[in-house]
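Let's do one together. I've listed all components of the complex below, 521 residues spread over two lines.
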Amino acid sequence: MQLDPKTIDSLVEEITKQVLAVLREQSSRSGPLQRAVDPMSPCSRCEEKGVQQLPKTIRDNVVRLGIPSDVRITAQDLARYIDHTLLKPDATYAQIAQLCEEARQYGFATVCVNPVNVQLCSQLVRGSGVGVCSVVGFPLGATPTRVKCYETQQALSDGATEIDMVINIGALKSKDYGSVREDIAAVVRTCHNSGAICKVIIEAALLTDDEKIKACQLAKEAGADYVKTSTGFGPGGATLHDVMLMRQTVGADMGIKAAGGIRTYQDAVAMLKAGATRIGASASVKIMEGARSES
Amino acid sequence: MSRIASYIDHTLVCADATPKQIVRLCQEACEHRFAAVAVNEVHVHLASRLLRGTGVSVACAIGFPLGGTSTWVKWYEARSALREGANELDMMIYLGALKDGCYDLVEHDLTAIVRLCHDYGARCKAILECALLTEDEKVRACRLAVAAGVDFVKTSTGYGPSGATVHDVALLRRVVPPAVGIKAAGGIRTYADAMVLIEAGATRLGISAQASLRILSEERQLMESL
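Okay, and this is what the predicted structure of the assembly comes out as:
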């Protein structure tokens, strides 16, 4: 029998619901089962993932998502998840060249740089399989949509393969959701027209949980490829809580980039296990060294 | 009558500033006769509509705060802000090129924006981000800015590792000709901070919204006690 993915999804959903209902009923009668089925009671996996920090509603759903906690990530795998990042304003030619050299050596997903360095990077990583990621409206997100689009267009014609754009945070805070969505959608369209990937930075440290959820929904509606936690220039970086919340909001078919404050191999792996599919880090080489000494 | 208000760019350039906060910023700027409001580009249209005919300028941040966009993008961004009604642009210089000794790139980047500003009858401030520069680089950056024809040099974005210092303001004052203004910005929180910077040669102060109101009330208290 052939089933389309939608039907399978809905069947899985239905079966999960029924199984959980049966198990809950059983567990209310027999104590020992409780630990295994009640998503609210902490188990070793919860502790490992820091699930206790999450609000109740999210915890209920983490069970459904079933993030594999025992998957081993090899050093080589890990490199393909990392955007090797250098965004400080005084980055020199030599530092950018070194960044590209390291990216080629380790096989990172991309080098992530300011627009002014995109052209140089795309020459230096050509043919290596390493992409070039440029930031747009960075790090405040407070330029108008037309400026973000122009900036995107320029970065793409300089050779960028991925764009990390910052949303209009003030508009989100004012509940002007139409503007936020349109702003994202315009940049996404520009990216997709050139076959580039668009990541949407929500700067989670400035948002309430409700605003984070809303921002993720808007990014999804606008057709973005990834949502990204932080710029690295805000008041805080990526947290496990945010990554899990974002994963729960966008579902399985969107990427999540955790960025800001990820300095060790352990940090990186924790983010991936929480649901991230990309890591933005300037300490990538240190992270890789950590991965090698671990395995 | 406040003596310090006319030095102040009443500033709100945080990422999460809302239109409501901008309206208040503009009201306060009108009420206290500040030199300008300094805002991000998404808010220029609103601010310039609110401040039309009041004598308070609208200053917009360009390439802010990293200066990491190409000249093309800064130019497009600047033109967009000027068309929306900005009278002043605070642009971040191309810092990486300065560090690499590619001075012509830095000057070219500045010249493009300065010319555009002057075409629109607006003024251009060049932000040097002094906290990231050596003494030689500060002097060099000032000379390039002056050669490009800027109206002000500005110490910092407020997003760098530190803000305006008396030392930097005095250095900038020595290097640039008297016709070019000096804007001190970043970390100015008290009336005393503001006064020492003015004495050192600052002709404009970039102060975040809450601090500028506090500084005015400090000034008022001081005047009353005399």
